[in-house]
Structures are given as C-alpha cells and as structure tokens.
Input
Amino acid sequence: MAAPSHSFVTNLLFYPTIDPLSIAILHKRHTVSRHLYQKATFLLSVANSRQLPSDQGIEVAFIGRSNTGKSSVLNRVTHNKQLARVSKTPGRTQYINLFALDAERRLADLPGYGYAKVPPEMKKKWQALLETYLSTRNCLKGVILVMDIRHPLKAFDQLMLDWCSQYHRPIHILLNKSDKLSRSAIKQTKVQVERAIKIYANPISLQVFSALTTDGTKELQDLLNKWFCY
Ligand SMILES: Nc1nc2c(ncn2[C@@H]2O[C@H](COP(=O)(O)OP(=O)(O)O)[C@@H](O)[C@H]2O)c(=O)[nH]1
Ligand SMILES: [Mg+2]
Output
C-alpha cells in the first residue's frame, strides 16, 4: 500500500520502525521546504514583458484556464489563503503576478482564460505576453499547467503544451479537483492525458491533485523543491 505522504505526521504513522536520525532528517526536510513556500510574498504584477524583474535566479510558473483552481493551488503550495486571490468570477487575471520566495527564487502566476466572453483583442494581448515570457525568460525552470480533471486538454492547454514543447520548457500537469471524480474516473482520465502528451518532445510529468483535500501536495512540493534546487 502506498503511503499518503502528506505530512511529517503521516510519514511517522506509516513508518513506525524508522530510526531517530531519519525522523530528524524527515522533520527538518519537511519544515525547511514548508518555510520556503510560506515565505512567498507578492513582488509585482506586469502587463508586458519589459516590466519583468531581472532575468536571474529561478522562476517556476503556474498557468491554467480560469476556474481550473490555479489560485487555489498557489495558495495551497504557499500555505497562504490570501496569496493568490481565489475568485468565482473567471477571467479576471490579465497580468503576470510574481511572488518572491527568497532573493533567488520566484513563483510566477501567469494569466489564463477559458471563457468565450473574453474579447478576442484581450486574448491576443495575453497570448503575446505569455508567448514572449515562455520563449525568452531564461530563469524559467518549468511550468505547472493546472487543468480541471473533469475537462482536461482544452484548446488553451493544447496551446500551452505546444508552446512549451516549442520553447523546450519542462511541464508538470496538475489534474486538479480530483475530489470531484471517482477513483476509476480519475484513473481513466490520467491514462487518457498520459497518452495524449506522448507526442511532445519536452519533459512532461503529470499528477492528480486536489486543492480542496490537499491530495497530491507532497508530490507537487517534491517537484518544486527539485526545480528550485532546494
Ligand atoms: N472541489 C474543488 N474545488 C476547487 C478546487 N480547486 C479550486 N476549486 C474551486 O474552483 C473555483 C475556482 O478556483 P480558483 O482558484 O479561483 O481558480 P482559477 O480561476 O484557476 O484561479 C473556486 O470556487 C474554488 O474554490 C479543488 O481541488 N476541488
Ligand atoms: Mg485565479
């Protein structure tokens, strides 16, 4: 049986025979990485790529169609309910929002859309900003692409996959809102998405997530630690 490795406490419950040194290391590791993301503070919002902070250190970007739960995921990762505004009104985010973790590491909240009522002119502007960011940002280590597990691989997601492949950006897909589906439906969707992403040449990984139940948080945090060299 796989351990639901969400926390230091569940690690201890699942590995009762673990030696004291390993317990200390587990505790330190959990505390250390939690601290990095908890330190996230809003840096700035940019409407065009010229306003971006200097291209140094490491950035990890989050992107997703509106209402897939991107803000909720960011809040979950940073253990901060206020960080990225969780909104029931879709399509409001038009800027790249940057959050500093420390002097060298940043999270970037990229604009997403997904509703027909967004005017085409605005879509064009967003796409230009996004494509410039994805194609030119040297410090961008990877992209977390958030999808609603009930509606994966929409046109916007395909566009992001195409661009990231074109610009050799690693992608990690979060199939969010897993709490909305049965276990068998989750498995089925995962297989379907895994099959669809095989055509891309850039590194792509995939996981199931729920910002509501915290399912998948440890897996995501491990990936972020790797990308941030933390
Ligand atoms: N059931 C469920 N609802 C979620 C989850 N993540 C986000 N939501 C809800 O989905 C809606 C949109 O979330 P938000 O984070 O604002 O999405 P964003 O537009 O992609 O930033 C809100 O009502 C959230 O409470 C999840 O994992 N499970
Ligand atoms: Mg949002």
The CA atoms of residues 116 and 131 lie 21 Å apart. The pocket of guanosine-5'-diphosphate (ligand 1) is lined by residues 64, 66-72, 86-88, 90, 176-177, 179-180, 210-212 (CB under 6 Å).
